[in-house]
Amino acid sequence: MAQEPSPSPWWRRALRVGLLSFGLAVSVSYISGQTLARAHVIIALLFVLMLVVLHIAFDILGTSVTAAEQSPLNAMSAKRITGARQALWLVRNADRVANFTNDVVGDVVGLVSGAAVTTVALQITRIFQGGARSEELITLGVIGLVSLITVGGKASGKTFAMAHATDVVVLAGRIISAVERMIGRSLTGGRGPNSSRRRTT
User: Cα separation of 127 and 119, whole Å?
Assistant: First the structure.
């Protein structure tokens, strides 16, 4: 009987997560900086809202993979329903997936959105030609509003994720399946996306 491979040392996993967080933070910060430096204030606000929505969406996925049951996903995978195999992989690796979605993506997007909010607040201040006091009030107001949307959205998202965990995970599986078909390789292990045909519901 073949022995299962020993798990990676904790420090190696921590190093991978740290390097991934560093790469994401640098990439997203650069993109947001380039976008906000040249964009109109309305576009900048929409960009910040997009970051907030991304933060909430990944938080919902992280909660869903820890709450979803494997049995319905096993049945869907046996019927070769599109995205079921990928959804099952997400649930079976719930600890790693939740760590990535809630901690890595969540922390990076939260950090970048905080810097972006400050930039947007400065742009609004320039439009109204306010002084230092106005700049402070506008900055606090924008930061407070974004924090309200983020915290409220995550709280509502967790409730939704607990009630619809399977649906959320299957939707994520279908998105991953579509990406796998586009790039021609599997992102979740097992057979490649073109190795067998699947039928959709």
Answer: 13
**What is the four-CA torsion angle of 81, 86, 91, 96, rounded to 10 degrees?**
-170
The reported pTM is 0.77
Q: Is the distance from CB of 130 to CB of 138 less than 8 angstroms?
A: yes
> 119 in helix, strand or coil?
helix
* 3-state SS, residue 2: coil
Task: Look up tokens 């040392």; give the residue.
Answer: 9
- Tell me the CA distances in angstroms from 173 to 25, 95, 105, 166, one per residue in order: 25, 16, 18, 10
Residue type, 147: S
pLDDT tens per residue, range 99-126: 888 878 877 887 777 777 877 877 777 7
| CA angle at 112 for the pair 142 and 180, rounded to the nearest 5° | 125
